[in-house]
Amino acid sequence: MSVHSMPDTVVDLIESHLPDHIKAAVRDLRQARTAFGLCRSEFTREAREYAISDMARADKVLATYPQAAVVLR
Predict the structure, then answer these.
(1) Distances in Å between the alpha carbon of 15 and those of 22, 26, 43?
(2) Count of other CB atoms within 10 angstroms of residue 73
(3) Which pLDDT tens digit goes with each residue over 2-60?
(4) Distance in angstroms (rounded) separating the CA atoms of residues 45 and 23
(5) Terminal Cα distance for the chain, rounded
(6) How far apart are CA 50 and CA 69, in angstroms?
(7) Which DSSP symbol is given to 1?
(8) pTM for this one?
């Protein structure tokens, strides 16, 4: 996955044209990735599994949108 740096105004313009359920899926994916990164110990195993399921759920929604790339901040 290549990461390109774009100005925030360009990202805002691109995101303004996305449907609401796609915006929500992008937000959920971003939050789940953050939660997954924080769950590294044995004690947070259950939270890590929840984060994995949240990422999978968001990916399923994003897969329904016919666009090559979705802009993530």
Answers:
(1) 9, 10, 37
(2) 10
(3) 556 777 788 778 778 888 998 899 899 999 999 999 998 889 999 999 999 999 999 99
(4) 28
(5) 14
(6) 25
(7) -
(8) 0.73
